[in-house]
Amino acid sequence: MKGRKVLVVEDEQKIAEIVKAYLEKEQYQVVLAKTGDEALTAFKQGFDLIILDLMLPDMEGEDICQTIRNDSDVPIIMLTAKSEEEDRIKGLGIGADDYVVKPFSPRELVARVKALLRRVKGPKEFVSFNKKDLIIDSARFEVTKKGETVVLTPTEFKLLQCIADHPGQVYTRLQLVNIILGYDFEGYDRTIDAHIKNIRHKIEDDQKSPVYLKTVYGVGYKFVGIPDED
Ligand code: CA
């Protein structure tokens, strides 16, 4: 996981510098590009991951993304400034693997970078969190908590797996319903709360102060486990 090369394409220098500093702290090699033109030139060096701002002075992030996609499957995280842009990314399927809405916390972005690199790495099908406290094994459909197997229903497993794939991202109840729709028709509306409650019961030490599944009041839920280094 160390020493991977990340291209950060961002015209706002302050943001670019902060992202660079956080990534370097985690031993990533970082190259900055301020324009689409610079990005497409730098891209030829070869990168393990690209962080791409949607709004650049000379080119649309979407166009850069598509140009890169013509040549490469490199993982791409899009940065967007507002929710309409978020809709654009979701709606058009422009080839980004993940996206982060500004203002974002650099720590969250780094967590997404790690999660994405882990996801594209291939055969490794399990992820662990909080120093192996919680392990989610997608190949075996198994979750262990402090080394003990936790029995989750298929719906609970699916829910936990999806939400844990994007640490820090807030999911609304509706999004969570969509995740488990087609998976379990019982997954509607407030039953999300019931599923979350059941999962918490199984994986949290103290359900009153959860360290994995946090409630975001008035919105939904997010997973805040810290992925372990490989
Ligand atoms: Ca910008």
Tell me what you see in this structure.
With 230 residues, the chain is of the alpha/beta class. The chain has 2 domains: 117 residues, Response regulator (Rossmann fold); 98 residues, Arc Repressor Mutant, subunit A (Orthogonal Bundle). The protein contains 8 helices and 12 strands. The chain has a 5-stranded parallel sheet. Helix 2 runs parallel beside helix 3. The longest helix is centred in the middle third of the chain and has 15 residues. It is globular and about 50 Å long. It starts with a strand and ends in a 7-residue tail after the last strand. Bound molecules: calcium ion.
Brief synopsis:
The chain is built from 8 helices and 12 strands. The chain has 230 residues and is α/β, with parallel strands linked by helices.
SSE pattern, N- to C-terminal: EHEHEHEHEHEEEEHEHHEE
The total of beta strands comes to 12
Number of helices: 8
CATH class of the largest domain: Alpha Beta
Question: Can you tell me the CATH superfamily of the largest domain?
Answer: Response regulator
Which structural class do you get from the secondary structure elements? Answer: alpha/beta
Query: Share of helix among residues?
Result: 25-40%
Estimated radius of gyration? 18 Å
Question: What is the 3D form?
Answer: globular
Write the CATH fold name of the largest domain: Rossmann fold
What assembly state would you assign to the polypeptide chains in this entry?
A: single chain
Question: What is the second-level CATH architecture of the largest domain?
Answer: 3-Layer(aba) Sandwich
Provide the β-strand percentage band.
Answer: 15-25%
Lateral arrangement of strands in the main beta sheet: 2-1-3-4-5
Give the count of structural domains. 2
Enumerate the distinct ligands.
calcium ion
- Overall mean pLDDT: 86
State the end-to-end CA separation: 7 Å
